[in-house]
Amino acid sequence: MKKKSKKEDVKLKFNSSWEYAPAPESKDHVKINSSYDLFINGKFTAPDSGKYFDTINPATETKIAKVADANEKDVDKAVKAARNAYDNVWSKMPAKERGKYIYRIARVMQERARELAVIESMDGGKAIRESRDIDIPLAAAHFFYYAGWADKIDYAVPGSKSRSLGVAGQIIPWNFPLLMAAWKIAPALAAGNTVVLKPAETTPLTALKLAEIIQEADLPPGVVNIITGAGATGAALVNHPGIDKIAFTGSTDVGKIIQKSIAGTGKKYTLELGGKAANIIFEDAAIDQAVEGIVNGIFFNQGHVCCAGSRLFVQESVMDTVVRKLKDRMETLIVGDPLDKNTDIGAINSKEQLGKIKQYLKIGVNEGGEMYQSSCALPSKGFWCRPTLFTNVSQSSRIVTEEIFGPVLGIQSFRTVEEAIEKANNIPYGLSGGVWTDKGSKIFKVTSQLRAGVIWANTYNKFDPTSPFGGYKESGVGREGGLHGLMPYLELV
Ligand code: NAI
Ligand code: MG
Fold this sequence. Notes:
With 493 residues, this protein is of the alpha/beta class.
Protein backbone atom coordinates (compact mmCIF):
# COMPACT_ATOMS: atom_id res chain seq x y z
CA MET A 1 0.00 0.00 0.00
CA LYS A 2 2.82 2.28 0.94
CA LYS A 3 4.56 1.59 -2.37
CA LYS A 4 1.46 2.35 -4.39
CA SER A 5 0.92 5.74 -2.88
CA LYS A 6 4.55 6.64 -3.51
CA LYS A 7 4.13 5.74 -7.16
CA GLU A 8 0.97 7.79 -7.46
CA ASP A 9 2.79 10.64 -5.88
CA VAL A 10 5.49 10.45 -8.52
CA LYS A 11 2.86 10.26 -11.24
CA LEU A 12 1.21 13.39 -9.97
CA LYS A 13 4.48 15.22 -9.73
CA PHE A 14 5.60 14.44 -13.25
CA ASN A 15 2.98 13.08 -15.61
CA SER A 16 0.35 15.74 -15.15
CA SER A 17 2.77 18.59 -15.67
CA TRP A 18 5.03 16.99 -18.29
CA GLU A 19 2.64 16.48 -21.17
CA TYR A 20 4.15 17.26 -24.54
CA ALA A 21 2.18 17.88 -27.71
CA PRO A 22 3.02 15.30 -30.42
CA ALA A 23 6.04 16.32 -32.52
CA PRO A 24 6.26 13.73 -35.28
CA GLU A 25 9.16 13.83 -37.73
CA SER A 26 7.85 14.09 -41.29
CA LYS A 27 8.03 11.05 -43.56
CA ASP A 28 7.23 13.02 -46.72
CA HIS A 29 10.82 13.27 -47.89
CA VAL A 30 11.46 9.56 -47.57
CA LYS A 31 11.31 7.24 -50.54
CA ILE A 32 10.92 3.55 -49.83
CA ASN A 33 10.29 1.10 -52.66
CA SER A 34 7.68 -1.59 -52.19
CA SER A 35 10.25 -4.25 -53.05
CA TYR A 36 14.05 -4.56 -52.83
CA ASP A 37 16.36 -6.90 -54.73
CA LEU A 38 19.91 -7.92 -53.84
CA PHE A 39 22.72 -5.45 -54.43
CA ILE A 40 25.30 -7.47 -56.36
CA ASN A 41 28.04 -6.14 -58.60
CA GLY A 42 26.74 -2.60 -58.43
CA LYS A 43 23.17 -3.43 -59.47
CA PHE A 44 19.94 -4.41 -57.78
CA THR A 45 19.42 -8.00 -58.93
CA ALA A 46 16.41 -10.32 -58.48
CA PRO A 47 17.22 -13.25 -56.19
CA ASP A 48 17.81 -16.68 -57.68
CA SER A 49 15.58 -18.02 -54.91
CA GLY A 50 12.66 -15.99 -56.29
CA LYS A 51 11.70 -15.47 -52.65
CA TYR A 52 11.05 -12.28 -50.70
CA PHE A 53 10.17 -11.60 -47.08
CA ASP A 54 8.48 -8.64 -45.42
CA THR A 55 10.14 -6.10 -43.22
CA ILE A 56 7.67 -4.46 -40.87
CA ASN A 57 7.49 -1.36 -38.74
CA PRO A 58 7.54 -2.70 -35.16
CA ALA A 59 5.70 0.39 -33.88
CA THR A 60 2.67 -0.23 -36.10
CA GLU A 61 3.04 -3.90 -37.10
CA THR A 62 2.53 -2.86 -40.72
CA LYS A 63 4.60 -4.01 -43.68
CA ILE A 64 7.04 -1.43 -45.04
CA ALA A 65 8.54 -3.34 -47.97
CA LYS A 66 9.39 -6.80 -49.19
CA VAL A 67 13.02 -7.74 -49.40
CA ALA A 68 14.84 -10.48 -51.34
CA ASP A 69 15.76 -13.67 -49.51
CA ALA A 70 19.20 -14.71 -50.80
CA ASN A 71 19.98 -18.41 -51.16
CA GLU A 72 23.36 -20.12 -51.61
CA LYS A 73 23.49 -19.33 -55.33
CA ASP A 74 22.86 -15.65 -54.62
CA VAL A 75 25.57 -15.66 -51.96
CA ASP A 76 27.93 -17.31 -54.45
CA LYS A 77 27.15 -14.63 -57.04
CA ALA A 78 27.86 -11.87 -54.52
CA VAL A 79 31.13 -13.45 -53.35
CA LYS A 80 32.28 -13.89 -56.96
CA ALA A 81 31.47 -10.26 -57.73
CA ALA A 82 33.47 -9.19 -54.67
CA ARG A 83 36.41 -11.41 -55.67
CA ASN A 84 36.41 -10.07 -59.20
CA ALA A 85 36.31 -6.47 -57.95
CA TYR A 86 39.12 -7.24 -55.50
CA ASP A 87 41.42 -8.91 -58.04
CA ASN A 88 40.86 -6.52 -60.90
CA VAL A 89 40.01 -3.13 -59.44
CA TRP A 90 40.11 -2.43 -55.71
CA SER A 91 43.40 -4.11 -54.73
CA LYS A 92 45.13 -2.47 -57.71
CA MET A 93 43.79 1.02 -57.12
CA PRO A 94 46.15 3.55 -55.49
CA ALA A 95 45.20 3.86 -51.83
CA LYS A 96 44.48 7.57 -52.04
CA GLU A 97 41.93 6.90 -54.80
CA ARG A 98 40.25 4.31 -52.59
CA GLY A 99 40.13 6.93 -49.86
CA LYS A 100 38.30 9.36 -52.15
CA TYR A 101 35.49 6.88 -52.74
CA ILE A 102 35.10 6.30 -49.00
CA TYR A 103 34.96 10.07 -48.38
CA ARG A 104 32.31 10.32 -51.06
CA ILE A 105 30.15 7.67 -49.34
CA ALA A 106 30.50 9.62 -46.07
CA ARG A 107 29.41 12.86 -47.69
CA VAL A 108 26.37 11.38 -49.43
CA MET A 109 25.38 9.78 -46.12
CA GLN A 110 25.50 13.18 -44.48
CA GLU A 111 23.44 14.73 -47.28
CA ARG A 112 20.81 12.02 -46.87
CA ALA A 113 21.01 11.88 -43.07
CA ARG A 114 17.40 12.89 -42.43
CA GLU A 115 16.02 10.27 -44.76
CA LEU A 116 18.28 7.59 -43.26
CA ALA A 117 17.25 8.52 -39.71
CA VAL A 118 13.55 8.27 -40.49
CA ILE A 119 13.95 4.91 -42.25
CA GLU A 120 16.06 3.58 -39.38
CA SER A 121 13.34 4.49 -36.89
CA MET A 122 10.55 3.09 -39.08
CA ASP A 123 12.24 -0.23 -39.78
CA GLY A 124 13.79 -0.90 -36.38
CA GLY A 125 11.63 0.99 -33.86
CA LYS A 126 14.31 3.20 -32.32
CA ALA A 127 13.48 6.74 -31.24
CA ILE A 128 14.16 9.32 -33.95
CA ARG A 129 16.19 11.36 -31.48
CA GLU A 130 18.70 8.53 -31.38
CA SER A 131 18.75 7.60 -35.03
CA ARG A 132 19.04 11.31 -35.93
CA ASP A 133 21.63 12.29 -33.31
CA ILE A 134 23.60 9.09 -32.83
CA ASP A 135 23.25 6.31 -35.41
CA ILE A 136 23.45 8.27 -38.64
CA PRO A 137 26.07 10.91 -37.71
CA LEU A 138 28.27 8.20 -36.19
CA ALA A 139 27.89 6.00 -39.28
CA ALA A 140 29.06 8.89 -41.49
CA ALA A 141 31.86 9.64 -39.01
CA HIS A 142 33.17 6.08 -39.38
CA PHE A 143 33.36 6.44 -43.15
CA PHE A 144 35.15 9.80 -42.76
CA TYR A 145 37.56 8.40 -40.21
CA TYR A 146 38.53 5.27 -42.17
CA ALA A 147 38.71 7.21 -45.45
CA GLY A 148 41.56 9.06 -43.80
CA TRP A 149 43.40 5.81 -43.08
CA ALA A 150 43.27 4.49 -46.65
CA ASP A 151 46.50 6.12 -47.84
CA LYS A 152 48.24 5.89 -44.47
CA ILE A 153 48.14 2.13 -43.98
CA ASP A 154 51.93 1.90 -44.29
CA TYR A 155 52.21 4.19 -41.28
CA ALA A 156 49.69 2.11 -39.32
CA VAL A 157 52.21 -0.68 -38.81
CA PRO A 158 55.62 0.99 -38.63
CA GLY A 159 58.51 -1.26 -39.54
CA SER A 160 56.47 -3.81 -41.47
CA LYS A 161 54.43 -4.01 -44.61
CA SER A 162 50.83 -5.07 -44.69
CA ARG A 163 48.34 -6.15 -47.30
CA SER A 164 44.60 -6.58 -47.53
CA LEU A 165 42.98 -9.97 -47.00
CA GLY A 166 40.61 -10.23 -49.97
CA VAL A 167 36.84 -10.66 -49.60
CA ALA A 168 35.21 -9.95 -46.24
CA GLY A 169 31.85 -11.54 -45.36
CA GLN A 170 30.08 -9.33 -42.86
CA ILE A 171 26.97 -10.13 -40.85
CA ILE A 172 25.28 -7.51 -38.71
CA PRO A 173 22.40 -7.31 -36.21
CA TRP A 174 19.28 -5.20 -35.91
CA ASN A 175 20.10 -2.91 -32.99
CA PHE A 176 22.23 -0.34 -34.89
CA PRO A 177 21.62 -1.33 -38.50
CA LEU A 178 23.36 1.44 -40.47
CA LEU A 179 25.98 2.08 -37.82
CA MET A 180 26.98 -1.60 -37.78
CA ALA A 181 27.17 -1.57 -41.58
CA ALA A 182 29.55 1.43 -41.32
CA TRP A 183 31.65 -0.26 -38.60
CA LYS A 184 32.10 -3.21 -40.93
CA ILE A 185 32.36 -1.71 -44.41
CA ALA A 186 34.48 1.41 -43.78
CA PRO A 187 37.63 -0.27 -42.33
CA ALA A 188 37.36 -3.18 -44.78
CA LEU A 189 37.40 -0.82 -47.78
CA ALA A 190 40.09 1.44 -46.35
CA ALA A 191 42.36 -1.57 -45.88
CA GLY A 192 41.74 -2.57 -49.51
CA ASN A 193 39.28 -5.45 -49.14
CA THR A 194 35.97 -5.94 -50.90
CA VAL A 195 32.78 -6.83 -49.06
CA VAL A 196 29.63 -8.92 -48.98
CA LEU A 197 27.40 -7.61 -46.19
CA LYS A 198 24.26 -9.20 -44.81
CA PRO A 199 22.01 -6.97 -42.67
CA ALA A 200 19.59 -8.43 -40.12
CA GLU A 201 16.26 -9.66 -41.43
CA THR A 202 14.16 -7.24 -39.34
CA THR A 203 16.14 -4.12 -40.34
CA PRO A 204 17.43 -4.40 -43.91
CA LEU A 205 16.27 -1.04 -45.25
CA THR A 206 19.08 1.36 -44.33
CA ALA A 207 21.66 -1.10 -45.68
CA LEU A 208 19.72 -1.12 -48.95
CA LYS A 209 19.67 2.70 -48.87
CA LEU A 210 23.43 2.49 -48.33
CA ALA A 211 23.56 0.43 -51.53
CA GLU A 212 21.89 3.37 -53.32
CA ILE A 213 24.43 5.72 -51.75
CA ILE A 214 27.25 3.47 -52.92
CA GLN A 215 25.83 3.67 -56.45
CA GLU A 216 25.60 7.44 -56.13
CA ALA A 217 29.23 7.56 -54.97
CA ASP A 218 30.13 5.61 -58.11
CA LEU A 219 32.03 2.92 -56.24
CA PRO A 220 33.32 0.34 -58.76
CA PRO A 221 30.82 -2.55 -59.14
CA GLY A 222 31.35 -5.48 -56.79
CA VAL A 223 33.44 -3.64 -54.19
CA VAL A 224 30.44 -3.67 -51.83
CA ASN A 225 27.63 -6.20 -52.24
CA ILE A 226 24.61 -6.23 -49.95
CA ILE A 227 22.52 -9.37 -49.69
CA THR A 228 19.43 -9.75 -47.55
CA GLY A 229 18.08 -12.83 -45.82
CA ALA A 230 17.95 -14.49 -42.41
CA GLY A 231 20.24 -16.94 -40.59
CA ALA A 232 20.49 -19.37 -43.52
CA THR A 233 21.83 -16.61 -45.77
CA GLY A 234 24.33 -15.65 -43.07
CA ALA A 235 25.45 -19.27 -42.70
CA ALA A 236 25.89 -19.59 -46.49
CA LEU A 237 28.13 -16.52 -46.42
CA VAL A 238 30.17 -17.85 -43.49
CA ASN A 239 30.65 -21.23 -45.19
CA HIS A 240 31.47 -19.91 -48.66
CA PRO A 241 35.02 -20.95 -49.58
CA GLY A 242 35.65 -17.64 -51.36
CA ILE A 243 35.51 -15.63 -48.13
CA ASP A 244 38.81 -14.62 -46.49
CA LYS A 245 37.46 -12.94 -43.39
CA ILE A 246 34.25 -13.02 -41.38
CA ALA A 247 33.15 -10.05 -39.30
CA PHE A 248 30.08 -10.76 -37.19
CA THR A 249 28.08 -8.83 -34.63
CA GLY A 250 25.18 -10.58 -32.93
CA SER A 251 24.34 -13.20 -30.33
CA THR A 252 26.96 -15.26 -28.52
CA ASP A 253 25.13 -18.42 -29.66
CA VAL A 254 25.53 -17.60 -33.35
CA GLY A 255 29.09 -16.37 -32.72
CA LYS A 256 29.95 -19.81 -31.38
CA ILE A 257 28.35 -21.54 -34.38
CA ILE A 258 30.42 -19.33 -36.71
CA GLN A 259 33.63 -19.97 -34.81
CA LYS A 260 33.06 -23.74 -35.04
CA SER A 261 32.15 -23.73 -38.69
CA ILE A 262 35.22 -21.79 -39.81
CA ALA A 263 37.69 -23.63 -37.55
CA GLY A 264 40.52 -24.99 -39.69
CA THR A 265 39.54 -23.09 -42.83
CA GLY A 266 42.13 -20.33 -42.41
CA LYS A 267 39.41 -17.67 -42.56
CA LYS A 268 40.16 -14.78 -40.28
CA TYR A 269 37.40 -13.54 -38.00
CA THR A 270 36.23 -10.93 -35.55
CA LEU A 271 33.18 -11.51 -33.38
CA GLU A 272 31.36 -8.86 -31.42
CA LEU A 273 28.87 -10.71 -29.23
CA GLY A 274 26.68 -10.27 -26.18
CA GLY A 275 27.23 -8.32 -23.01
CA LYS A 276 25.95 -7.76 -19.50
CA ALA A 277 27.69 -4.60 -18.42
CA ALA A 278 28.14 -3.52 -14.81
CA ASN A 279 27.39 0.12 -14.09
CA ILE A 280 28.94 0.90 -10.70
CA ILE A 281 27.79 3.89 -8.63
CA PHE A 282 29.93 4.91 -5.64
CA GLU A 283 28.56 6.96 -2.76
CA ASP A 284 30.78 9.92 -3.71
CA ALA A 285 29.35 10.13 -7.25
CA ALA A 286 27.27 13.06 -8.46
CA ILE A 287 24.04 11.14 -7.96
CA ASP A 288 21.75 13.06 -10.33
CA GLN A 289 24.33 12.78 -13.08
CA ALA A 290 24.74 9.07 -12.34
CA VAL A 291 20.97 8.55 -12.53
CA GLU A 292 20.99 10.10 -16.01
CA GLY A 293 23.85 7.76 -16.87
CA ILE A 294 21.92 4.73 -15.62
CA VAL A 295 18.89 5.76 -17.69
CA ASN A 296 21.06 6.30 -20.75
CA GLY A 297 22.91 3.07 -20.09
CA ILE A 298 19.92 0.74 -20.00
CA PHE A 299 16.92 2.50 -21.57
CA PHE A 300 18.77 4.02 -24.53
CA ASN A 301 17.64 2.25 -27.73
CA GLN A 302 15.11 0.15 -25.72
CA GLY A 303 18.05 -1.66 -24.11
CA HIS A 304 18.87 -3.21 -27.52
CA VAL A 305 22.51 -2.50 -26.88
CA CYS A 306 25.23 -5.09 -26.39
CA CYS A 307 27.08 -2.70 -24.08
CA ALA A 308 23.89 -1.70 -22.16
CA GLY A 309 24.48 -1.08 -18.45
CA SER A 310 22.06 -3.84 -17.51
CA ARG A 311 23.59 -4.70 -14.12
CA LEU A 312 23.58 -1.80 -11.71
CA PHE A 313 25.77 -1.90 -8.60
CA VAL A 314 25.10 0.83 -6.05
CA GLN A 315 27.11 1.47 -2.91
CA GLU A 316 24.91 0.55 0.03
CA SER A 317 24.85 3.99 1.66
CA VAL A 318 23.26 5.63 -1.42
CA MET A 319 21.12 2.70 -2.56
CA ASP A 320 17.78 4.14 -1.39
CA THR A 321 18.50 7.56 -2.85
CA VAL A 322 19.59 6.19 -6.21
CA VAL A 323 16.59 3.85 -6.50
CA ARG A 324 14.16 6.62 -5.52
CA LYS A 325 15.64 9.09 -8.00
CA LEU A 326 15.79 6.45 -10.69
CA LYS A 327 12.11 5.60 -10.26
CA ASP A 328 11.21 9.29 -10.41
CA ARG A 329 13.20 9.67 -13.60
CA MET A 330 11.71 6.51 -15.16
CA GLU A 331 8.28 7.97 -14.60
CA THR A 332 9.11 10.89 -16.91
CA LEU A 333 10.38 8.73 -19.79
CA ILE A 334 8.16 8.83 -22.85
CA VAL A 335 7.52 5.46 -24.48
CA GLY A 336 5.84 5.49 -27.87
CA ASP A 337 5.95 6.56 -31.51
CA PRO A 338 9.61 6.27 -32.58
CA LEU A 339 9.11 9.11 -35.08
CA ASP A 340 8.00 11.54 -32.38
CA LYS A 341 10.89 13.81 -31.41
CA ASN A 342 9.84 13.69 -27.74
CA THR A 343 10.05 9.92 -27.52
CA ASP A 344 12.70 8.48 -25.22
CA ILE A 345 11.96 4.81 -25.70
CA GLY A 346 10.71 3.51 -29.02
CA ALA A 347 9.38 0.10 -30.05
CA ILE A 348 10.97 -3.24 -29.28
CA ASN A 349 12.52 -4.43 -32.53
CA SER A 350 10.40 -7.53 -33.13
CA LYS A 351 7.65 -9.69 -31.69
CA GLU A 352 10.27 -12.38 -30.98
CA GLN A 353 12.46 -9.97 -29.02
CA LEU A 354 9.47 -8.69 -27.04
CA GLY A 355 8.55 -12.31 -26.26
CA LYS A 356 12.08 -12.92 -24.98
CA ILE A 357 11.99 -9.80 -22.78
CA LYS A 358 8.57 -10.71 -21.33
CA GLN A 359 9.85 -14.19 -20.58
CA TYR A 360 12.72 -12.66 -18.58
CA LEU A 361 10.33 -10.39 -16.66
CA LYS A 362 8.46 -13.53 -15.57
CA ILE A 363 11.70 -15.28 -14.65
CA GLY A 364 12.78 -12.26 -12.59
CA VAL A 365 9.52 -12.21 -10.62
CA ASN A 366 9.51 -16.00 -10.16
CA GLU A 367 13.03 -15.88 -8.79
CA GLY A 368 11.89 -13.45 -6.10
CA GLY A 369 12.94 -10.17 -7.70
CA GLU A 370 10.90 -7.07 -6.95
CA MET A 371 9.84 -5.56 -10.26
CA TYR A 372 9.09 -1.89 -10.81
CA GLN A 373 7.84 -0.50 -14.10
CA SER A 374 6.99 3.05 -15.01
CA SER A 375 3.28 3.69 -15.27
CA CYS A 376 3.18 5.24 -18.77
CA ALA A 377 0.46 4.32 -21.23
CA LEU A 378 1.53 2.18 -24.18
CA PRO A 379 0.20 2.39 -27.76
CA SER A 380 -2.36 -0.30 -28.58
CA LYS A 381 -0.49 -1.62 -31.64
CA GLY A 382 3.17 -2.47 -31.90
CA PHE A 383 5.78 -4.04 -29.61
CA TRP A 384 6.42 -2.13 -26.39
CA CYS A 385 8.06 -2.57 -23.04
CA ARG A 386 7.94 -0.13 -20.15
CA PRO A 387 11.26 0.77 -18.55
CA THR A 388 11.70 -1.83 -15.83
CA LEU A 389 13.92 -2.30 -12.82
CA PHE A 390 14.39 -5.21 -10.46
CA THR A 391 15.58 -4.97 -6.88
CA ASN A 392 16.03 -7.92 -4.53
CA VAL A 393 18.06 -9.83 -7.11
CA SER A 394 21.32 -11.69 -6.52
CA GLN A 395 24.44 -12.66 -8.42
CA SER A 396 22.81 -15.94 -9.39
CA SER A 397 19.50 -14.50 -10.67
CA ARG A 398 19.03 -15.25 -14.35
CA ILE A 399 18.04 -11.69 -15.13
CA VAL A 400 21.40 -10.63 -13.70
CA THR A 401 23.54 -13.17 -15.54
CA GLU A 402 21.84 -13.53 -18.95
CA GLU A 403 21.61 -10.98 -21.75
CA ILE A 404 18.01 -9.74 -22.03
CA PHE A 405 18.50 -7.05 -24.68
CA GLY A 406 15.61 -4.97 -23.44
CA PRO A 407 14.93 -2.02 -21.07
CA VAL A 408 15.36 -4.15 -17.95
CA LEU A 409 17.76 -3.30 -15.14
CA GLY A 410 18.84 -5.50 -12.23
CA ILE A 411 20.06 -3.60 -9.15
CA GLN A 412 22.41 -4.91 -6.44
CA SER A 413 24.30 -3.19 -3.66
CA PHE A 414 27.94 -3.39 -2.58
CA ARG A 415 30.04 -2.05 0.29
CA THR A 416 33.66 -1.89 -0.88
CA VAL A 417 35.50 -1.22 -4.14
CA GLU A 418 36.84 -4.79 -4.09
CA GLU A 419 33.35 -6.23 -3.72
CA ALA A 420 32.08 -4.14 -6.64
CA ILE A 421 34.92 -5.31 -8.88
CA GLU A 422 34.49 -8.94 -7.92
CA LYS A 423 30.75 -8.89 -8.51
CA ALA A 424 31.10 -7.01 -11.79
CA ASN A 425 33.64 -9.52 -13.14
CA ASN A 426 31.69 -12.57 -12.03
CA ILE A 427 30.01 -13.15 -15.40
CA PRO A 428 30.85 -14.90 -18.69
CA TYR A 429 30.62 -11.60 -20.57
CA GLY A 430 33.11 -8.73 -20.67
CA LEU A 431 32.11 -6.13 -23.21
CA SER A 432 31.71 -2.90 -21.29
CA GLY A 433 31.16 -1.23 -17.96
CA GLY A 434 30.65 2.08 -16.21
CA VAL A 435 31.97 3.70 -13.05
CA TRP A 436 30.62 6.78 -11.28
CA THR A 437 32.72 8.46 -8.61
CA ASP A 438 34.25 11.76 -7.64
CA LYS A 439 37.63 10.11 -7.02
CA GLY A 440 40.08 9.68 -9.88
CA SER A 441 41.95 7.00 -7.95
CA LYS A 442 38.81 4.87 -7.75
CA ILE A 443 38.25 5.28 -11.48
CA PHE A 444 41.77 3.99 -12.17
CA LYS A 445 41.42 1.11 -9.74
CA VAL A 446 38.09 -0.03 -11.15
CA THR A 447 38.94 0.44 -14.83
CA SER A 448 42.23 -1.43 -14.48
CA GLN A 449 40.54 -4.40 -12.84
CA LEU A 450 37.25 -4.74 -14.69
CA ARG A 451 37.55 -7.41 -17.37
CA ALA A 452 35.70 -5.46 -20.03
CA GLY A 453 36.70 -4.01 -23.38
CA VAL A 454 35.15 -0.56 -22.93
CA ILE A 455 34.65 1.24 -19.62
CA TRP A 456 33.09 4.65 -19.27
CA ALA A 457 33.80 6.88 -16.28
CA ASN A 458 31.13 9.37 -15.19
CA THR A 459 29.37 8.91 -18.52
CA TYR A 460 27.88 6.03 -20.49
CA ASN A 461 27.27 4.85 -24.07
CA LYS A 462 29.62 7.31 -25.71
CA PHE A 463 31.13 6.25 -29.02
CA ASP A 464 33.76 7.61 -31.32
CA PRO A 465 35.25 6.19 -34.54
CA THR A 466 38.79 6.58 -33.21
CA SER A 467 38.12 4.44 -30.15
CA PRO A 468 38.36 0.62 -30.24
CA PHE A 469 35.35 -1.42 -29.17
CA GLY A 470 35.15 -5.13 -28.38
CA GLY A 471 34.98 -7.71 -25.65
CA TYR A 472 36.63 -10.17 -23.33
CA LYS A 473 35.46 -13.73 -22.72
CA GLU A 474 32.09 -14.61 -24.31
CA SER A 475 31.66 -11.05 -25.55
CA GLY A 476 33.83 -11.77 -28.53
CA VAL A 477 37.14 -11.69 -30.31
CA GLY A 478 38.88 -8.69 -31.86
CA ARG A 479 38.23 -4.97 -31.87
CA GLU A 480 36.35 -2.58 -34.13
CA GLY A 481 36.94 1.15 -34.37
CA GLY A 482 40.18 3.08 -34.37
CA LEU A 483 43.43 1.67 -35.64
CA HIS A 484 42.59 -1.55 -33.79
CA GLY A 485 39.58 -1.95 -36.09
CA LEU A 486 41.71 -1.61 -39.19
CA MET A 487 44.20 -4.33 -38.26
CA PRO A 488 41.78 -7.29 -38.54
CA TYR A 489 41.41 -6.39 -42.24
CA LEU A 490 45.17 -6.50 -42.85
CA GLU A 491 47.84 -9.14 -42.90
CA LEU A 492 51.45 -8.37 -42.10
CA VAL A 493 53.90 -9.51 -44.76
P1 NAI B 1 21.36 -13.35 -34.12
O1 NAI B 1 22.74 -13.51 -33.60
O2 NAI B 1 20.61 -14.56 -34.54
O3 NAI B 1 21.39 -12.35 -35.39
C1 NAI B 1 22.44 -11.50 -35.75
C2 NAI B 1 22.73 -11.67 -37.24
O4 NAI B 1 23.22 -12.97 -37.50
C3 NAI B 1 21.52 -11.49 -38.15
O5 NAI B 1 21.93 -10.84 -39.34
C4 NAI B 1 21.13 -12.93 -38.45
O6 NAI B 1 20.42 -13.08 -39.66
C5 NAI B 1 22.48 -13.60 -38.53
N1 NAI B 1 22.49 -15.04 -38.29
C6 NAI B 1 21.61 -15.78 -37.56
N2 NAI B 1 21.98 -17.07 -37.55
C7 NAI B 1 23.12 -17.16 -38.27
C8 NAI B 1 24.01 -18.24 -38.60
N3 NAI B 1 23.79 -19.49 -38.19
N4 NAI B 1 25.10 -17.96 -39.35
C9 NAI B 1 25.36 -16.71 -39.76
N5 NAI B 1 24.55 -15.66 -39.49
C10 NAI B 1 23.45 -15.88 -38.74
O7 NAI B 1 20.55 -12.55 -33.05
P2 NAI B 1 18.94 -12.49 -32.86
O8 NAI B 1 18.36 -13.86 -32.92
O9 NAI B 1 18.42 -11.50 -33.79
O10 NAI B 1 18.84 -11.95 -31.37
C11 NAI B 1 18.91 -12.86 -30.28
C12 NAI B 1 19.69 -12.30 -29.13
O11 NAI B 1 21.04 -12.07 -29.53
C13 NAI B 1 19.20 -10.97 -28.62
O12 NAI B 1 18.14 -11.10 -27.76
C14 NAI B 1 20.45 -10.44 -27.96
O13 NAI B 1 20.57 -10.99 -26.67
C15 NAI B 1 21.57 -10.97 -28.82
N6 NAI B 1 22.04 -9.96 -29.80
C16 NAI B 1 23.23 -9.34 -29.56
C17 NAI B 1 23.66 -8.35 -30.42
C18 NAI B 1 24.92 -7.60 -30.20
O14 NAI B 1 25.05 -6.49 -30.68
N7 NAI B 1 25.91 -8.17 -29.56
C19 NAI B 1 22.87 -7.92 -31.57
C20 NAI B 1 21.67 -8.69 -31.78
C21 NAI B 1 21.28 -9.66 -30.90
MG1 MG C 1 11.65 -3.99 -39.77
